[in-house]
Design a protein that fits this description.
By secondary structure, the chain is of the alpha+beta class. It contains one helix and four strands. The longest helix is centred in the middle third of the chain and has 10 residues.
Length: about 90
């Protein structure tokens, strides 16, 4: 099962773009002149991240994590009458 629950107790600091991205004319790659966008820092708590920003005069905006919806299902639910089936999987009558 891949529920993606790793590193959920970490607060992350990411910088906004200060200059727009450009398109390199020869190859068409997207390039940027602002190297701060490459930096991301992790903190053990929200307070630690805010304290770092305050110490270094960094403007910040806090995005609260979304509440996770958990759908509890059993394996037998995969074979119920309401399960979507592909072509050629209709029951034999």
């Amino acid at each position: 099962m891949q529920s993606g629950r790793g590193k959920i107790n970490v607060w992350r600091l990411e910088f906004d773009l200060s200059a727009p991205r450009g398109i390199e004319p020869l190859m068409g790659w997207t390039s940027a002149t602002d190297m701060r966008q490459e930096v991301a820092m992790n903190f053990p708590s929200r307070e630690a991240a805010i304290a770092y920003c305050d110490r270094n005069d960094i403007e910040y905006r806090v995005r609260e994590p979304k509440q996770r919806k958990v759908w509890v299902r059993t394996y037998a639910d995969n074979f119920g009458p309401t399960t979507v089936r592909g072509p050629g999987t209709e029951p034999i009558s």
